[in-house]
Structures are given as C-alpha cells and as structure tokens.
Amino acid sequence: MATGVLARRLRALVGDDGVVDADDVLLVYECDGYTLERAAPELVVLPRTPAETSAVVRLLAEERIAFVPRGAGTGLSGGTLPLAAPVMVCTSRLREIESIDLRNRRLVAQAGVVNSWVTRAVQGDRLLYAPDPSSQTACTIGGNVAENSGGPHTLKYGVTVNHVLGVELVLPSGEVVRLGGAVEDRPGPDLVGFVVGSEGTLGITTRATLRLVRAPEAVRTLLAIFDSVDAASEAVSDVIASGIVPAALEMMDRLVLQAVEQAFSAGFPADAGAVLLVELDGPAAGLEEQAEAVSAVCRRNGSREIRVARDEAERALLWKARKRAFGAVGRLAPNYCTQDGVVPRSRLPEIVRAIAATAERHRLRIGNLLHAGDGNIHPVILFDERDADEVRRVIEAGHEILAACVALGGSLSGEHGIGVEKIGQMPLLFSPDDLLAMTRLKAVFDPEGRANPHKVVPDAKVCVEARTPRRQAAM
Amino acid sequence: MSAPPGDHAAALAALASELGADAVREAGPGDLVDGVAPFAVVRPADAEQARRAVAIAARGRIALVASGRGRHLSIGAPPRHLGLLLRMDRVDRVVEHHAADMTVTVEAGCTLAALDERLRRAGQWLPLDPPAPAETTVGGLVAANLAGPLRASQGGVRDLLLGIETVSGEGVVVRGGGRVVKNVAGYDLPRLHVGALGSLGVVLAATFKTVPVPAREGAVEVEVASPREACDLALAMRDAFEPAWLELVAEDGGPATRVVFGCAGLPPEVACGLLLARAEADRPGHHAVEVEDAAARRAELAAFPLREAAAILRVSTLPDRTGLALESLARAARDCGVRAPLSAQVASGIARAAIPDAVAVAPVLRALRARREDPDAAVVVERASAGVKPRLVGDADPWGDPGESLSLVRGVKRALDPGGILSPGRLPGGV
C-alpha cells in the first residue's frame, strides 16, 4: 500500500493528529537514546487508547506491514530503530492510570504512563513503584516492560519483571491477549516473565498490572570518597559480603567526578579516584547500625571521607551528582555513548582495569558510572561523531568491553537491552541452539516477523546490514 | 503408551548401551505418575547422560516425565502418555557458589536441604521454603514453581532464578539467562520454565540469587473468630510492619483462624516488628503471643500442602480476598460433608484447603467453580493422592479454565518440544 493511502487509513483510526508523515517531524523518531545509528520511519502512528492500538496493529497485519513499537524513545540500545519496518507505533498517548488498589498494592497503568507518575500517584499512601531508571521522569511503563528496565534501586528491589504481574499484549496479528493479572500464581508457564524484556519483538504492551511496594520508613544515604576505583570496588565486595543489602550502591570514577564537578560544584576533591554512593532503607530500627557498618567497611578500605546526608535535602544533593552524571559527562565532548555490560560483582576491579586498557588502546576517554552493587557497568565513551575514525574506534571499544564482560562470566546487558547495538554479540553469550530456541519462540508470537524485525536475536540466515536501509551515523 | 513395545525394547537397549545398564531399570508399581505407569525408569549419573536419555526418547518418540525425588509429582494433570520416568536425583552437584557474588549454580537433582547446608557455610541462603526441603530438588522447585511462607517478602522462584540449562524435547541443550544478578540479554527462557512442569524442557541446572541469612527471625501468633477477620487483621499487621512471612491457618477447618506474623532481620528490626505487630493484634477479645521457635513454626506452616489428604485445593486470589477464599473453601467442604483444614499466604493471595475424603474432592471443586464468588480467582487441585485424579475430569479438571493464553502456551510447547514427548498433558488445557 502506498504510504499516503496507509496514512489516510491510519488517520481514520487514530485522528488527524495521530499520524506523523512529514519528513521534518519524522526526524524526531530517527533514533532513541542510542544515537550512533539513525533511520527514520515512513510513518509514526500515535494511538490514544489500547483499543486504537489493536486496531492499528490489525490494519498493519491486514497489509502485512512491519512495525516498531516505541514509548518515550529514551532507550539506550537502539531498540526503536526501524529496520525494515516502515511504521512506528508510539504508545506515548496511552497515558491513563486505570486503577489503583492500595490494599492489594496493585496499579494498572497504560503503556504511555511515565514511570515517575506511578510513584507520584501512590506516594501519599506510603507506597512506591520500585524500578527507577535514570530517565524515570520521561520513560514510559510500556518501554520499561519492553526493556525490563532497572535503575539504581534494583539492587534491593529487583528490576521491572519483578514488579509486573500482568500485561495486555497486542499480538502482531492485532489480537489482544491478557497475560497474568492482579492475581499471582496463575497456572501454567510464566508468559508475563517472557514478554517483559522482549524489546517489542513479540507485540505491543498496552497495559500493565504493576506491583507496588511499601515506601521505606527511613533512608540513610552516604557518600564515600576513595583514592582509587580498586579501593572502592573492594569496599563494594566487603559491603555485600557483610550481609547488608543496600537499596542502592553506585560508583563514579575520576573522569565522571571531574565532569560532575565542572557541571555543578558538588565539592568532590579534585584528586578523588572514585566515590561510592550507598543508600540503605527500611524500618528505622537497625538502620543506623547498618549505616555505621557500611561506613566502617569504607574506612577500612581506605575511604578518606564519608559524607552522610542528614536530611532529605542533603540526600537529594548526593543523588544529584549521580542522576545528572550522564549529562555532566556529556558536556565534555560533542557526543557520548554508554555501555551496559554486567560482571559478577567480585570482578568489578578487573573490568574497570580492562576498560582503562581499552580506552588507552583506542585513544578514547571513557568514564565509569557503575551500579556497583549488582555488577552493572555503564562506561561512558566520549567522542566526536564528525570524526569517522574516532566513531569506528568507539564501536570497537564498546565491543571489546562487552566481550570482556562475557569473558568474566557476565552479560551483554543489565538493563538497556540488546536492541541493534549488541545483537552482533549475542553469539558470545548464547549457542546456536539457544538462539534457535529464541527464534522459534519469537515465531510463536510473531509468525510473520513483523514486530520490531531484526532485534534481540541475530538472524542466522541473512546479514542484517546488507538488507536494511539502516545508516551508520557519521560513518 | 506413546509407542509400541518394539520401540520400548529398542529404547531400552539404547539407554543401557549409552548410559550403562545400571542407569536403567524396568518400572515397578512405585513408579506411577498420577496413576500412569512408565515402562522404564532412567537414572542418569550426570547432566550429559540426562541429555542423552532425552535424545533417545526423542528419537523413539517416547513420552517422559522428569522427577527428582518424586515428592511433588502429584502436581498437574496426569500425563497423557508415559514411557520413561527420568529420575534426576543423581545429577545433584552444587556447580559453583560464588559467595562474594551471591549467586549459586546447582544441578537439578540437588535437594534444597543439601543446597541450604552448603550456602549456610557462607552465611547465605536461597530464601525459598517449600515443604519437605530434604525431598525437594532444584528441578522440582523450578518446574512446579514451589514456594513457602517466605514468598511474602522474598518473592517466588521467578524472582530469584537468574539462569537455566535445560534439555529440549529434541534432546538439545538450551540455556537462558546467565550467572549475574542483572541480565536482560535475550528472551527470558528461565522464567518460561517456572511452573511449566518440565513440559518445555528437562531442567539440568539453574542459577539463583542468594541472600544473607537474616540474623534473627521472630514471630507472633493470634487466634481470631473467622478467616475474614484473620485476613483483615493480617493486612493491618502488614501495614504496621512489613513481615517476612504472614500466614493464616485453621487446623480444624475454622471458623477460628490463627494469624501468624513473622519478621526477620537485625535484632532491633525484629524486636520492633514484633512489637508493632502485637500492638495491632492485641484487641479486645484476642491476645497475641510470641512464637518460641519462629523458623520451626514457619517450616510447619510451609508443610501444609504435603499433609495427609485426598487433595489440596488452592485458590489464587488477591491478598484482601484470602479470608473470603478460605470461607468459600470451608463452606464448599462442609456442604459436601467434610471438614477441611485451611491455610493461606495472605501477602501472595493463596488459600488452601486439605480435603480429607477422595469422594468429596470433585464435588467441592465443582461447587467452588460454579459459585464464582470471586471472578478473578483461579481454583485448582494442587495435589491429589493416588486414585483421585481419574475422577477429576470435565468441570472438575485439576486446572480449570486454561485462560486466553492457551494458544500461546501451545505454541511455546511446540517450539521447545515439537514431538510432544515432555510431560504431555500435564499443563492447563491438556498441553
């Protein structure tokens, strides 16, 4: 079907303002938070309700048109990059929180509800929605479900899949299927767990039943300054080994600290090698003892200074450095990209050394932000996309870092997803038999391969690059 | 039987030659799975032998059911066919426990008791407490999605499972997930196997998160007049302090029901929790008492599903309807002339009744399903003793309505077990 005709038929379903087909506006959708590769879709559809979403997908099914689902576009692995998919279906207008059940701690949100709205809706009742990605004021529940998003507090509370009890999924055929729901432990295999993190390749999530948790009665946040990443890493291992499970345990290295210091004076010593941000939460009883124990571990590992937040304002200040760190590092160079590998947490010192060696080898500047408590690294690689050779080195360095993670017993991605970025490296982690099983499972939901094609599982038969219109930015 | 005897002989010969004669024997009367007899029992010595056994079964199109120690085999619908019983209890190594990383990789046949003993050496545990840990294996834990009271605070198998290694119905090793605590690479195969009763693959090994053993555990207990009152009180106690576990129990079938509130953590935390819980529970007419040995009481409550009974019925519902679910169970039992001991895990919304009399199981089940007092609830026969399952047909099917995901489940089954040899018919909807 010609694009114009399709646009007309889609407008009949979602309203005139629900279809984007002007070239200059389509550029907005040419990439998500992963900017190394760009490709604009031919059309963007923005349904207003779950029912409109299934109607749109039904029409695409009738016409056998492939599509890419998208939430707020904050993803970091290129999961919403259209590859051989002319239509993008954006769920950002599905913004209703449909029901809140405080007593049972359940909330039903449509896909376009922003992550932080959920907690805002229930915080007066001392509940919260635990997964808190750094983009939480922009990213949507639909995107979180697709990516199985994490965040700093997942160390104690778990990631998205641990907090999603049910999803309503529009299959690529347009058929709507409700999996799981407010009641736990339904008989049969855990299809909800399978759909969470499937990166929009099995269909489009339109609604999710979320689990709420009790907001902690008390919080202690402390920041420990170290001379080196090694010393801070040892402290991380010792904290974990001591039997304390912090709510969050974050690390920033020198380059990141300097960037943060430049962006907004947080008062870090210029020669600090690393800081740990540790947050403990729970009942007030016993929390002080835990904070003392953590401080002692840090001091024992050579921490030269420990700052303890005395109130919410001070806590916000400590977190500000962490939450704005990506932006601060971003100011140091025209472009940056980040990786999302995971290592067993005892291997943190090794991976940080490997990253430093990679940086040196490829003549790149790489800073490190780490969800240290669960071994999830976010090296931030700085570059200038106008320098083609540097871009090539960035991509190579990224691959090397992920290969090093896998070699240390880790994984390619802790919370950002495979997307297009890491699809080529899936064979590092999985055997051909594992990947074949995944390909077959995808086909159960999407027999025609029209939902977010060429993502998550590498296509064994064809070279993706060769048959798709994707273009490598600045390459 | 799925195959004529000639093929059985060929399969037996292949098993004996590839695995050794001592790994295979003819089945006896003690090897029935829900009343269905296999022709042989295979007991592989290691994971590779297990894979080969499945591959041989796949070649001969022989149906098999994997089992650890057989303690939880009455969960699910009876197998439609059965040729081999694959006993995994010898595949039982703790492959690696990285205490500093707080992960453990363990083979399917290892019992939870043995695993616990190993983890406690490093001050850690896998906080899942299903009944009979000494007779429950890791494979059974995953396949049957077993849990106990700790589920209230620690989550279920799906929340602690990080990676899995299975053999597909084609005899191929398929792995998913990994060994790190946070991982989103690839589709989530591990969770797919949770509760799948081995029908999507035979579990060879699994990797779990471990956590520190809490320094102290404490509990208080109070008896109130009815299940609904108990449920309301339990939720009020939960709102006063987040419990580690929260159980209701009515040993003689109610109406009097006990609320047992457990907490765990550092000593001051536990002391504070017990104090707040008692303050909530001490109302006119009832008085909370502290439980002497909280961990022992928890184990006792965890054992409910394995008590002597014709069947255990389970209602999954919302937390605040567990009291209602217990009352429905009690009434349906009473109407059929039996008294059924009751138990519930309030935080997870699970209510159970132990039906003492085989004849009463199907009528109680039908009555509950017909009444549909709670439209969201799922009413299932969780376990049944020998001879009961054949009566559970039609509207008394152990699983009830398989729901709208049935065609996807069928597809997933075909993707991982195209020949349909793994636990055929055990899942809802005859999958």
What would you say this structure looks like, in words?
The complex is a heterodimer of chains A (475) and B (431). Chain A is α+β, with helices and mostly antiparallel strands. Chain A has four domains: 3-90, Uridine Diphospho-n-acetylenolpyruvylglucosamine Reductase, domain 2 (2-Layer Sandwich), CATH 3.30.43.10; 100-214, Uridine Diphospho-n-acetylenolpyruvylglucosamine Reductase, domain 3 (2-Layer Sandwich); 218-327, Alpha-Beta Plaits; 333-407, Alpha-Beta Plaits, CATH 3.30.70.2740. Chain A is built from 17 helices and 20 strands. In chain A, strand 18 and strand 19 (376-383) form a beta hairpin. In chain A, helix 1 (3-14) runs antiparallel to helix 3 (50-62), helix 8 (229-241) packs antiparallel against helix 10 and helix 13 packs antiparallel against helix 14. The longest helix of chain A is centred in the C-terminal third of the chain and has 20 residues, at 388-407. With 431 residues, chain B is α+β, with helices and mostly antiparallel strands. An eight-stranded antiparallel beta sheet of chain B has the order 15-12-14-13-17-18-16-19, with helices on both faces. Chain B starts with a helix and ends in a 15-residue tail after the last helix. Residues 1-5 of chain B have low confidence and may be disordered. The chains are: A alpha+beta (475), B alpha+beta (431). Chains A and B meet through strand 10, helix 7, helix 8 and helix 16 of A and strand 9, helix 7, strand 11, helix 9 and helix 13 of B.
